[in-house]
Amino acid sequence: MAVSVYYDWHALLRLSFLLSLAFSVGALNHHPSSSALDFSHQRLELDEQLVYDFYRSTCPDAETIVYQFMREAVANDSKIVAQLLRLMFHDCFIQGCDASLLLDDSNGNLNHPIERNAIPNRTIKGFELIDQIKEALEKECPNVVSCSDIISVATRDGIILTGGPFFPLLTGRRDSQESYFNEANQQIPRPDSNISETLRLFSKRGFSEKEAVTLFGAHNIGKIGCEFILQRLSNFKGTGKPDPSVPPDFAVELKRSCNANASSSPLPSRVRNLVESAAGLSYFQIVAPSSPSGSGFDMHYYKSLVMGRGLLYSDQQLMADPMTAWLVTVLASDDGSTFKWEFAKAMLKMSNLGVLTGSQGEIRSRCSFPNSH
Ligand SMILES: *[C@@H]1O[C@H](CO)[C@@H](O)[C@H](O)[C@H]1NC(C)=O
Ligand SMILES: *[C@@H]1O[C@H](CO)[C@@H](O)[C@H](O)[C@H]1NC(C)=O
Ligand SMILES: *[C@@H]1O[C@H](CO)[C@@H](O)[C@H](O)[C@H]1NC(C)=O
Ligand SMILES: CC(=O)N[C@H]1CO[C@H](CO)[C@@H](O)[C@@H]1O
């Protein structure tokens, strides 16, 4: 019952999205002539690579199974959606959406360089859920559904389940056979990146300023680790001084909220660094006292930035460039529908980055290991 409601609802949204997409393909960098909208077969081909409903005949229940897992996972703990968004972003940003981030060929050796342990990635979570979904899909149709498609579909469904926009994901991604430690270290924007560095890294991936500002809106949900916030308040970029762009009253507030839990961890610092700090603040907490907005996909992230209350330096930097500041102001000003629409388009674009298709890569049988393992 619930599943069929989901699909009816999906079908309606999908239709309206496809119709609007037909008029905005230019914005998505596709040539209108190369996109075939074929409603009779319910199949959308935006480019030669991925297709709409790739598993239609090889594993027809694949997307339903992912959705059912996500519904349960979000009901258990809605933090999982922010975690998956972060996981997907890190995977797609480095050599494309190929599940390279999931690979662990370290055999327990903490010094072995793998992408999921690379500097910016230490705090990534959600691996267990992807493994769980993969296991269920292997039972249903062995060696058919890629780990990279699971990441994209699960993240998309999580976004819907937390009140975010629907977007019609294309599928048919295949998994890489290696992970990319050095690229992950160098090419992921950092929490202390300035706006020009952030925009440079996004533009290397083909994202416009508007798309970069929109994707930052993922910070609407989930928490920002206190380790990043506190660094900004005391030893910003190793200067030994606070970040001057944090308003004094906001600094006091942040310090109070974060320090409540910070020093209580009994673990040695080396171990502590590997475990995600549970302490963190959400944008909703920051803006809620002065805003009637909800905790999901609305514009409260952008409203916080307009008020100078960005949790990360890289967030607040969106107000330091006239173009991105203007975009933030626009996204903060309506009822959230502009953001949802732009977010759907930007996520769709990100989900297609550098994918492996056809005979490239492989379909891993376990997401953490290449098949040759
Ligand atoms: C939800 O929580 C239950 C009980 O802790 C657990 O058994 C189940 O695996 C969780 N489901 C998901 C999808 O995380
Ligand atoms: C921004 O960061 C980059 C990389 O860290 C640095 O090279 C550049 O000088 C910085 N730009 C400004 C305006 O601070
Ligand atoms: C501190 O811990 C409490 C209880 O575990 C939690 O509810 C609260 O959100 C934590 N605060 C921060 C800033 O993480
Ligand atoms: C981007 C970023 O904040 N990376 C952090 C990842 O974790 C290491 C060690 O815990 C930190 O030193 C980095 O700053």
From TrEMBL:
Cofactor details (free text): Binds 1 heme b (iron(II)-protoporphyrin IX) group per subunit. Binds 2 calcium ions per subunit.
Cofactors (names): heme b; Ca(2+)
Binding site for Ca(2+) 2: 298
Signal peptide positions on this chain: 1-27
Keywords associated with the record: Calcium, Disulfide bond, Glycoprotein, Heme, Hydrogen peroxide, Iron, Metal-binding, Oxidoreductase, Peroxidase, Secreted, Signal
PROSITE patterns on file: PEROXIDASE_2, PEROXIDASE_4
GO molecular function per UniProt: heme binding; lactoperoxidase activity; metal ion binding
S-S bridge residues: 59-141, 92-97, 147-367, 226-258
GO biological process, one term: response to oxidative stress
Principal subcellular localisation of the protein: secreted
Catalyzed reactions per annotation: 2 a phenolic donor + H2O2 = 2 a phenolic radical donor + 2 H2O
Residues at the catalytic site: 90
Domain Plant heme peroxidase family profile: 49-371
Any GO CC annotation of this UniProt entry: extracellular region
Compartments, as annotated in UniProt: Secreted
Binding-site positions, substrate: 189
Residues the entry annotates as binding heme b: 219
E.C. designation(s): 1.11.1.7
Positions with a binding annotation for Ca(2+) 1: 91, 96, 98, 100, 115
Domain of life: Eukaryota
Family: Belongs to the peroxidase family. Classical plant (class III) peroxidase subfamily.
PANTHER family xref list: PEROXIDASE 25-RELATED
UniProt function note: Removal of H(2)O(2), oxidation of toxic reductants, biosynthesis and degradation of lignin, suberization, auxin catabolism, response to environmental stresses such as wounding, pathogen attack and oxidative stress. These functions might be dependent on each isozyme/isoform in each plant tissue.
Protein name per Swiss-Prot or TrEMBL: Peroxidase
Organism: Carnegiea gigantea
